[in-house]
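Re-run with default settings, no changes from the original entry. Doing this only to confirm the output is reproducible before filing.
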Amino acid sequence: MSQPARWRVLVLDDHARSRADLRAAIEAAGGEVAGETVRCADVLDVIRTAHPDVAVFAVGLEDGDGITVASQVVAEGCPVVLFTSHTGDELVERARAAGVMAFLLKPLRPAELAPALDLAVARFTETQVLRQRLLERKVIERAKGLLMSRSGLTEDQAYRRLRRAAMDNRRPMVDVARDMLALESVLGDLPAP
């Protein structure tokens, strides 16, 4: 039985030689090319059908800019690594703002590919987990605030009440908080008994 691919990679580059070099390096490192495209306009469709683990994008393309499309791909839940010969401060800042996880410099040095892709996937996963935890924390804080205002509780008392409800129902605290906020949105306009 064959081993699963180390990563499934989408390649966006309009130079045939660069795509061939990337394809060879990806396969040599135990990865699989999940899709290739030469146009920015096609990237989101390929992402949505191929479901790659990571994407490698050239920067200057005939129909657009790999950094601009990178932010859209990151929003779809896929980390992006840029493949470029440029390293200017402006490019790096734009890539950072777009959520790019790593750079590979042209010409490709195959030994640099695996560490860059591994790091990009790991850092992206960490970032997603932290983002999710922050969102959950905000939900809990809103529910705590609601308990404090509705029941006259202190912050600590409201937290303990949420925690107790979660433990009693064997559910994550964020789920109890979401349920409480949903119920408040339905009953919020009703007068208190």
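Strands lie at 8-12, 32-37, 54-58, 60-61, 64-65, 80-84, 102-105. The chain has a mean pLDDT of 92.
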